[in-house]
Amino acid sequence: MADEHRSPLSGIHTLLSAIRYRYRLILFVAVAVLAAGVTYVMQMPDVYQSETQILVNPQRISDKYVNSIATMDASERLNTLSQQILSSSRLETIMDELHLFSNLRDKVSHDELIKRMRKNIGIELKHNSEGLSAFTLSYTGDSAQEVANVANRLAESFISWNLQDREQEAKGTTTFLANELTTTKSQLDDLEEQLRSYKMKHLGELPDQLDANMQTLSRLQVELQANTEAQSRLDHEALLTSSLPDTGSPRTPSISTSVRQKLMTEKYAAQTELVELRKHYTDSFPDVGRKEAEIRSLDGQIASLPSDPTPLATADSTNTANPRLQLIHRDHDRLQDEQRKIQGSINRYQSRIDSAPVREQEVSQLLRDYGTARDHYRALLEKTYSAQMAAQLQQEQQSGNFTMLDKARVPEAPVGPKRIPLFLAAFLFSLVSGIGVALLAETLDNTVKSETELRDCLPDIPLLGTTPGMQNVPVIRRGLPQSRFLLGGQ
Fold this sequence. Notes:
Elements: H1 9-21, H2 23-43, E1 48-57, H3 74-85, H4 88-98, H5 110-120, E2 121-128, E3 131-141, H6 144-201, H7 210-243, H8 255-280, H9 286-304, H10 311-318, H11 323-395, E4 401-404, H12 419-444, H13 451-457, E5 463-465, H14 473-479, E6 486-487
Helix pairs in contact: 2-12, 3-6, 4-5, 6-11, 7-8, 7-10, 7-11, 8-9
């Protein structure tokens, strides 16, 4: 087979032969491409870049004294401000102010110009152990003076927008806290008025007055017992005085009078025991109820006795002129009035004590609401003072902000394009283009140029010989016919 006669070097030999044969074409194409590339590189406009460094200043006053009102750290704020800087409205303002892309405004759309400007802006962050410390803001363009002006304008706008943003944030926070403080103070005043009105309405029934009411009730019960004992003594003294014989005829007490006196003594003893029980128990205690029932039973028995003048009445009827009986009568009336007053006071204080649990629950609800509102008001008041100091600190620019270290300078030399690497690339591309065109021409050429090609074309016909090499072969080959090889059988 013809493929068996090929060697690995045959392809390289064919390539070199084609290059030697078509070197003029290669040189022509390479020179043309190189000239076009060099011309294009030389005509490329110079690219200038100007940059400025912005320092991130920490808050000058310690957070221990004044808390910063800013809710974002420097990195987050930088990201936010970077988005604001690259916004279409702000870039459009700077573009119109500095008259950028004046030669392209009639050829390119407004959005395309903003995209180009946004692409020319560069932001590079620099961090240290404590976080963001500085960042570099740069701008790239085809005019040295223009890129410096744009970089400085972007930096100034960045710092100005940052201050405005922080001032607006501080002002908004202060205003919000002031409104909340006013609303909370109004609620607190309403709760204070409700609590005051409730205490005035239920004065004496409040839980904090329970101990005083208990002490007063105990004192009144002692006074009631003393009053009852005094009345009993007066009744006994009146009986003795009225039972003494006068100068006229002797008189003995009736049986009904003796029974009444006995019942009165039992009633006095029951009342004394009731007073003692009330010192330690409430009216709901069973012994207190039984003792009250006993006193009511004694009152019923005394009322069921036949009408019999009391010792004082008997004394008045028998001996109205007795000064001792008149004195006993006045003391007895006085003690009865005091007893009624003491009993009324006991009932009133007992009612206060009984209603204390209800009042305690109601007061607890009011105090809980008042305490919550008061704590909220105090917290808002503290936050308002802190926000006001932070706002004042922000106005004095002593809070964390940005500072432009050095203004962007007009660049002395362009940063691009890199012409030497581009020239080398154009040279290599011209060589590759020339060789490629030569290979393409060789591929499209159907002439037989070597014994190998002839064997491939006529594998079944033996080759008798070839003509020797001659000078100026390409020139001679152009005038000779294609069949210059001697083939067997012809």
